[in-house]
Design brief:
Blueprint: H1 4-33, H2 40-59, H3 66-86, H4 104-114, H5 116-136, H6 146-227, H7 233-255, E1 265-267, H8 268-277, E2 284-288, E3 293-295, H9 296-317, E4 322-329, E5 332-339, H10 348-353, H11 358-369, E6 373-377, E7 384-391
Parallel strand pairs: 2-4
Antiparallel strand pairs: 1-3, 4-5, 5-7, 6-7
Length: 396
Amino acid sequence: MLPAPERSRRTLARGALVFRWVALGWMTVLALSETNFRNAPLAWASIGAAGAWTAWLTVGGRRWSWRVLGFDLALCCWLVVVSGFVVPEGTVGTRAFFATAYPGSSALLWGVAHGTLAGLTAGAGLSVALIGSRLANGIALSELTRREWQSIGGSFVLYLASGGATGIVSRLLVRTAEEAQRATDELVRERERAARLQERESLARQIHDSVLQALALVHKRGKELAASQTPSPAEVDRLADLAAQQEATLRGLILRPPADTPAGQRSLREALEASAIGIIGVPVGVSAVGSIVIARHRADEIAAAVREALANVVEHANASRATVFADEEDGKIVVTVRDDGVGFTYDEERLRADGKAGVLKSMKGRVEDLGGTMTVTTPPGGGTEIGFSVPRTETR
């Protein structure tokens, strides 16, 4: 893909090329209507050369080397001079100009390619050729009237202005494109830095919430076993299993590809996995249907409620496993926490009376603050299922 400055030049050059084709067509129309050519073969050969060159510029002339620009200016100067050879003597300034506006396209191309000074240089070259057309037509410069000099001067201004103005526009477009490109590149770099920082912070939170807490437990329990006279082999084995589990967790976190989430949002599955990783005592499986990406604070609050539910499973359920499942239904995020424990009788009034506010505040309170609801299904002896239903976006 071309850089932005080069694309700006190409756009301006396409406009100049359209002008060139229009001028070529008008020159051809004038030639067809001419009945008194002094040298018709030379006239048509010149028009043919201009047509072939214009076609080449259209198809393959996308690199404006000095050789290409030099040939273009030479051809356009030739068309100006040859005008004096192909029309009757003494008439070049009193009739429609044979070359019409086509030579001015060279000044345009020079201005597009190399700016104001180049455009003025090409315009000056065409102005000199315009004097040559009078000499080729047998007109002595000393015989030119004031009005004829004014006409020549107007053509000078036209050539110089077209090249110089195009050069100014080209420079402005290129400078604007360069500044826009720099701003875009800086924005991309900032977004990349923000994404790396976001991923680093996300990884740090997951490690802190899971691996570091488990390692602290391993350290504490290891010190206790070291101080014991007769450490239990089962306790040592359990400690080794816990360390191995956290090693696998840490390896998975490091090797996991970064999540492609917009700024301010988070993958719900990632948040739930971070909550489940820190649970010690009951194996937890986390799954989700598709990629669920929501506002970061909503994902964090849902994950905190799930973590509280899993903590209750470890403490009260006497379960051998637990699962967390997330899905999206009708604009709502539905998360369920299931275990195969002993179950219990869910009674909110009794929980309040007993001062056990963990379920009500840490779980139900969180999801209700998000505009959602919590349900508890817990037949005695049949395990427990806690469901959280939260709107995907904030509702008021």
